[in-house]
Design a protein that fits this description.
single chain, 315 residues, alpha/beta, Rossmann fold, Elongation Factor Tu (Ef-tu), domain 3, six-stranded parallel beta sheet, six-stranded antiparallel beta sheet, 14 strands, elongated, disordered C terminus
């Protein structure tokens, strides 16, 4: 998959896609349906995605708590696994936010990207102040000779599948239910940083990843698998939260990887959440913490036996 961060002066090889439109946060089953519709409408054209970085919500409401299910790298990996060939990750800034809906169609989609087909959900809105809806998109695209596929929501017994619904499940401690809507386990990807090394002193060294712009799932302990930089998948147990026993402040993910002894500092790690084991708690001393981590590790090993939902695909 090729990634472009501009819509102007692109080479001919980067144009002419059947293009799925949206933020694609999470790349869930509803997003996969939009991709299938784009491909089915023009199977001879390269399959492309137009999305934005940062997420428009983050641009307009920077004071909001972190909400992203997938940051750029993990989103790109998930899209590539679904067959996307061209990814247009357009910078969302003040200038871009002022492009009118009509100019978005004519200048960006038609002249810039040369799209031959568009696909989006029924609630897609675009342009300055979200002034464009699917009615305008369809009319503008028709005038420009571009086909449009409007994809109805994908739903299950509980209702439409959406990024909002998946966020709620993760915040309530149900990564297994979220995985069913994503089509894969929810993953947190980031650079491993140096911690306080206390885990190593009690026999449970951890890889520490700041949550950064990721949505913070329910605080507590999870059964996880980690994808290492070389592609190897390792099972483990992880805590997400502030680490009250050691007086932590910034939320982070700390993963203890089973039977692994390598050095991961400074490397990018993807940690997939499979089962929520227990809520985060404060212990009286390190001995009590050590004993509980040992119990958590055994629980995590049992949870991961026979696991059906795979971790996120490799890039």
């Amino acid at each position: 998959m090729k990634i472009f961060r501009n819509w102007q002066n692109l080479p001919a090889s980067a144009c002419g896609a059947s293009l799925a439109l949206g933020n694609f946060d999470g790349v869930h089953l509803g997003h996969a349906a939009v991709l299938r519709a784009a491909h089915a409408a023009r199977p001879g054209a390269p399959l492309g995605v137009l999305t934005f970085e940062p997420h428009p919500r983050g641009y307009f409401r920077p004071q909001d708590p972190p909400f992203r299910l997938t940051l750029a790298a993990e989103r790109a990996a998930a899209l590539a696994a679904l067959g996307v060939e061209l990814l247009y990750e357009l910078p969302f800034d003040a200038a871009f936010s002022h492009i009118s809906a009509a100019d978005f169609c004519a200048q960006v989609l038609h002249r810039g990207l040369g799209a031959v087909q568009l696909a989006c959900g029924a609630d897609f809105a675009f342009g300055h102040r979200r002034g464009g809806d699917i009615g305008l998109l369809t009319a503008q695209a028709e005038a420009l000779g571009i086909g449009v596929s409007i994809v109805p929501p994908v739903a299950d017994a509980q209702g439409p599948i959406s990024s909002t619904r998946i966020r709620r499940l993760l915040q309530e401690g149900y990564p297994d239910r979220a995985a069913l809507l994503l089509g894969r386990a929810h993953t947190i990807r980031g650079e491993v940083i140096h911690g306080d090394a206390r885990g190593r002193t009690i026999g449970f060294p951890t890889a520490n990843i700041p949550l950064g712009e990721h949505l913070e799932p329910a605080r507590g302990v999870y059964a996880v698998t980690a994808r290492l930089p070389g592609g190897q998948s390792v099972e483990g147990v992880a805590n997400i939260g502030q680490r009250p026993t050691v007086g932590g402040i910034e939320p982070r993910l700390e993963a203890h990887l089973f039977d692994f002894t390598g050095d991961l500092y400074g490397q990018e790690l993807s940690v997939a959440l499979h089962e929520f084991i227990r809520e985060e708690q404060k212990f009286e001393n390190f001995a009590a913490l050590q004993a509980q981590i040992a119990r958590d590790a055994l629980t995590a090993r049992r949870c991961l036996t026979g696991r059906r939902i795979p971790p996120n695909p490799t890039p």
